[in-house]
């Protein structure tokens, strides 16, 4: 995870003010959530970490990271994402409230995929 994150950040142009990090094992993320995250990031008064949050408090994905945290993200190692950084920078977080499961349902196993396939469309 951390190697993919570093590769993606290194590929960004110097003019990028942030990076939206989406996980490949979350196939239900909808464009409306992405649009809402981008709108929140662009309208923030100062650079913020932006992510979806369920009404029950769960943190979802994708997450938009401001440029000034790219170094901290690049320093992560192993199968770690930025969740610890979110905790360290809680005062800089901006959440977008969402219902449903699209920003929270990941597919790590065949059983997870089968469960998603059984959900009503």
What attributes characterize this protein structure?
two-stranded antiparallel ribbon, 34% helix, single chain, two-stranded parallel ribbon, 121 residues, 5 helices, alpha+beta, 17% strand, globular
Strand content: 15-25%
Query: How many extended strands?
Result: 4
Class of secondary structure makeup: alpha+beta
Radius of gyration: 15 Å
Order of helices and strands: HEHEEHHEH
Mean pLDDT: 92
Total count of helical runs of at least 4 residues: 5
The largest pleated sheet is described as: 2 strands, antiparallel
Spatial ordering of strands, largest sheet: 1-3
Overall 3D shape: globular
**Unreliable parts:** none
Question: First CA to last CA: what distance?
Answer: 30 Å
* Percent helix: 25-40%
Describe this structure as you would to a colleague:
With 121 residues, the protein is an alpha+beta fold. The chain is built from 5 helices and 4 strands; from the N terminus they run H-E-H-E-E-H-H-E-H. The model has no long low-confidence stretch (mean pLDDT 92).
Secondary-structure topology with pairs:
Elements: H1 2-10, E1 18-21, H2 31-43, E2 49-54, E3 63-66, H3 70-74, H4 83-88, E4 93-98, H5 110-117
Parallel strand pairs: 2-4
Antiparallel strand pairs: 1-3
Compact overview of the structure:
34% of the residues lie in helices and 17% in strands. With 121 residues, the chain is α+β, with helices and mostly antiparallel strands. The strands form two sheets. A two-stranded antiparallel ribbon has the order 1-3. It has a two-stranded parallel ribbon with strand order 2-4.
């Amino acid at each position: 995870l951390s190697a993919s994150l570093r590769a993606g950040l290194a590929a960004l142009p110097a003019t990028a003010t942030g990076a939206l990090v989406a996980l490949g094992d979350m196939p239900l993320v909808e464009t409306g959530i992405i649009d809402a995250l981008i709108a929140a990031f662009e309208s923030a008064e100062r650079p913020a970490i932006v992510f979806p949050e369920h009404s029950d408090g769960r943190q979802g994905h994708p997450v938009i990271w401001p440029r000034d945290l790219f170094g901290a993200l690049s320093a992560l190692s192993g199968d770690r994402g930025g969740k610890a950084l979110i905790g360290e920078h809680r005062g800089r977080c901006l959440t977008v409230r969402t219902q449903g499961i699209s920003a929270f349902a990941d597919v790590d196993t065949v059983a997870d995929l089968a469960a998603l396939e059984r959900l009503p469309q």
